[in-house]
Each structure stands twice: as C-alpha cells, then as structure tokens.
Amino acid sequence: MYAFVVMVMISGTPQLFIMERGLTASACEEMVRRPDSGLRIDGEKVAGEGHCILERELPESDVPT
C-alpha cells in the first residue's frame, strides 16, 4: 500500500506531511496529479509537492504505534 505525502519547506526546513494512507498505486498517483494537495496550515493553502511513498518506507517517527 502507498501513502500520499506532501513535502513543503517551513522556515527553511523540509517537512513531510502524510495526507492519506492505504492507497493503491493508481489512487495515489491520481492524488499527485491534482492541482491542490489539500494541505492547509492555519486555514491557509500551503504550496507543496505531492508524492507517493510505500507505507513501509515512511519515517518511523511518523508511523503510529
């Protein structure tokens, strides 16, 4: 399964936001092609680049226990 993530720069530091988990490859790619990633911080749209990542490759600190 894949996770749709959005990578953004916040205060000069790259941040990875997990937007959706448990996606098939085709469903994840469809989300990447959307013009709006859906990421909002304090109600404001955040420009970021969407990516598909295998769930097993997500950083350990972002995986719920």
Largest sheet: 3 strands, antiparallel
- Based on CA atoms alone, the radius of gyration comes out at 12 Å
Rounded mean pLDDT is 88
Q: How many separate helices?
A: 1
Strand order of the largest sheet: 2-1-5
Can you tell me the residue ranges where pLDDT is under 50 for at least 5 consecutive residues? Answer: none
Overall spatial form: globular
Give the N-terminus to C-terminus distance in angstroms: 17 Å
Give helix and strand order, one letter per element, not per position. Answer: EEHEEE
The total beta strand count reads 5
**SSE-based structural type:** mainly beta
- Strand portion: over 45%
Helical content class: 10-25%
Descriptive labels:
1 helix, 46% strand, 3-stranded antiparallel sheet, two-stranded antiparallel sheet, mainly beta, 65 residues, 14% helix
Topology:
Blueprint: E1 2-10, E2 13-23, H1 25-33, E3 40-41, E4 44-45, E5 49-54
Antiparallel strand pairs: 1-2, 1-5, 3-4
Describe this structure in words.
The mean pLDDT is 88. This protein has one helix at 25-33; strands at 2-10, 13-23, 40-41, 44-45, 49-54. The protein contains 1 helix and 5 strands. A hairpin with a 2-residue loop joins strand 1 (2-10) and strand 2. Strands 2-1-5 form a 3-stranded antiparallel beta sheet, covered by helices on one side. The longest helix is centred in the middle third of the chain and has 9 residues, at 25-33. With 65 residues, it is mainly beta. Helix content is 14%, strand content 46%.
